[in-house]
Amino acid sequence: MKVAVIGANGQLGSDLCKQLDAADLMSLTHSGIEITIMDSVKDSFQKYRPDIIINTAAFHRVDDCEADPDKTFRVNALGARNVALIAQERGAKLVHLSTDYVFGGEDEPRTTPYTELDIPVPANTYGKSKLAGEDFVRQLCSKHFIVRASALFGVAGSSGKGGNFIETMLKLARERDELRVVNDQVFSPTYTKDLAGKIARLIATEYYGIFHITNKGICSWYEFTKEILRLAGLKTPVIPITSDQLNQKARRPRYSVLDNYHLQLLGMDDMRPWQEALKDYLIEKGHIT
Length: 289
Ligand SMILES: NC(=O)c1ccc[n+]([C@@H]2O[C@H](COP(=O)([O-])OP(=O)(O)OC[C@H]3O[C@@H](n4cnc5c(N)ncnc54)[C@H](OP(=O)(O)O)[C@@H]3O)[C@@H](O)[C@H]2O)c1
Known about the structure:
With 289 residues, the protein is an alpha/beta fold. Helix content is 39%, strand content 16%. It has one domain: 3-Layer(aba) Sandwich (Rossmann fold). The protein has eleven helices and twelve strands. Helix 1 crosses helix 7 and helix 6 (165-175) packs across helix 8 (221-232). The radius of gyration is 18 Å and the shape is globular. Residues 6-7, 9-13, 29-30, 33-36, 56-60, 75, 79, 97, 99, 130, 149-152, 158-160 line the site of NADP nicotinamide-adenine-dinucleotide phosphate.
């Protein structure tokens, strides 16, 4: 089974490359493929004919997406289309990475987890562009797995975001007298190592469709921060604040918890609680023993 990973040096991409069979792996970084340019996508798959393409590439700095919608739609929607067309042409399976941010734009904030059967209503440009990318994938590539994940953390750190939330909080907690963190955005943090493991199992099947894949349990950024600091043994006080106090460019979902319903139906939902995954991450990064 030959597998190509687009965004191979990213946070999820690097964990995927670790968990997939290295002998049959094509690792594509941004210097080797530009998904917004069709010829670049075609060239990349001219010689190497993968059975499976995993597209993790995205423009996902949410406030920057709001400021530059053209770039956002070019990468997240048209880029997804280009990859989907090539996958279909080659008869390859396609794993396309998407996000919980396709949800959360309703007037009445949701209070129960979203399943794959819920109709997405994005709250911001990033979410709209990822939903447009999903639509291209569904229409253009028959053997697709659309994987919606949430609040990713991985040892490589997010390439597009320049690190991840955990590392930022640990650094700030050591520098500042107190941390002020949003308490009205609720989601399921997800370890890229666990997500990569689940994708590795999924691609061996023909269970095509949309999959929500997150670690178990929910929290706000405030609660997530409290647990990060507790596990790391840091005593810096954490003050809960509201999203309105941050004055961010892009509106964020107040609640974007995903239910791994499709995995449950298949008896494949053994994702562990985010607290366990977080502890594992902190050990792997050398923050705790
Ligand atoms: N991070 C999260 O919290 C989160 C949450 C939910 C869903 N997701 C989704 O999960 C996926 C992976 O996220 P991640 O955190 O692993 O992202 P990441 O670390 O930023 O990795 C993305 C990779 O894609 C590459 N890339 C970006 N634009 C590209 C383009 N136009 N052509 C080719 N390659 C390009 C990046 O390279 P360069 O950095 O060198 O440009 C990077 O290697 C994304 O689709 C994202 O939308 C992420």
